[in-house]
Design brief:
about 270 residues; globular; 6-stranded mixed sheet; single chain; Nitrilase/N-carbamoyl-D-aminoacid amidohydrolase; about 25% helix; alpha/beta; 14 strands
Length: about 270
């Protein structure tokens, strides 16, 4: 495969109403299939909104939400990236998952960095793994929203060979410039394609979400970028160009992790701050 068409779903999520949101998800999946997409990505917690009352919605993975999304994958012949509140102790986990055209659960990822500024850490338990999985033979990874501010998991995914990372998000308007900058930065520094799907509209907490979903190629250029309208943002990732760039400009091979490991530790005799 040399090209991969991705559709990012800019959804105005119905607050804490899984049935309504899954009904709307079918329309988005159908539109993505009509647009020729192979993969469609829904925003973070797309069946609920970014709720800080997750316990009533906690479920297993696989479970009801993955089953519903898998049915859409089968119906429309798509890979779909969804998310759900996963049951876990002491708190549920904010999880993303991928279902395949055959209805199989391809991968699951648990958000490593709960958004402490918004008190997410008081309601969700962070994950501890960055799995790499394949979509039609293309190595891919997942991150979720606030994870975008932390370069380490993206570098870990790149070191495992990931060429594309999908990022479901609920990123508010007041910090949208950081969203756009960080999407490009993660792509540039890891020579990977980065696909961020952000919701639109206003939630029950009064936060506004401006979309600005985007697909960035391995050079950091925006292949496709949305405005604040509900709908799809569709773009093609040129995997041949990505692989050729990694080979021609092998920045990832110039890393020196043995040096980096010591940089956060004080030198001998240096006072600790």
């Amino acid at each position: 495969m040399t090209m991969l068409r991705v559709a990012l779903v800019q959804q105005a999520t119905v607050w804490q109403n899984p049935a309504a949101n899954l009904t709307r998800a079918r329309g988005f999946a159908e539109a993505a299939a009509r647009a020729g997409a192979r993969v469609a990505v829904f925003p973070e917690l797309f069946t609920l909104g970014f709720t800080m009352a997750p316990e009533p919605f906690a479920e297993s993975i696989p479970g009801p939400t993955t089953d519903a999304v898998a049915a859409l994958s089968r119906e429309f012949g798509l890979y779909l990236v969804g998310s759900a509140v996963e049951a876990h102790a002491p708190h549920p986990r904010n999880a993303a998952f991928v279902t395949g055209p055959d209805g199989a659960l391809v991968a699951a990822y648990r958000k490593i960095h709960p958004f402490s500024y918004g008190e997410e850490h008081q309601h969700y338990t962070g994950g501890g793994d960055c799995p790499v999985f394949e979509l039609d033979g293309v190595p891919c990874g997942l991150q979720i929203c606030y994870d975008l501010r932390f370069p380490e998991p993206f570098r870990a995914l790149a070191a495992q060979g990931a060429e594309i990372v999908f990022i479901p998000a609920n990123w508010p308007a007041r910090r949208i410039s950081a969203w756009s900058t960080l999407l490009a930065a993660r792509a540039i520094e890891n020579q990977m394609a980065v696909c961020g799907a952000n919701r639109v509209g206003r939630d029950a907490l009064g936060l506004d979400y401006p979309g600005a979903s985007a697909i960035h190629d391995a050079f950091g250029e925006a292949v496709a970028k949305g405005d604040a309208a509900e709908g799809l943002v569709v773009g093609d990732i040129d995997l041949s160009a990505l692989r050729a760039w990694r080979e021609r400009f092998p920045a990832l091979r110039d890393r020196r992790p043995e040096v980096y490991m010591g940089l956060e530790r004080p030198s001998p005799g240096e006072p600790r701050s």
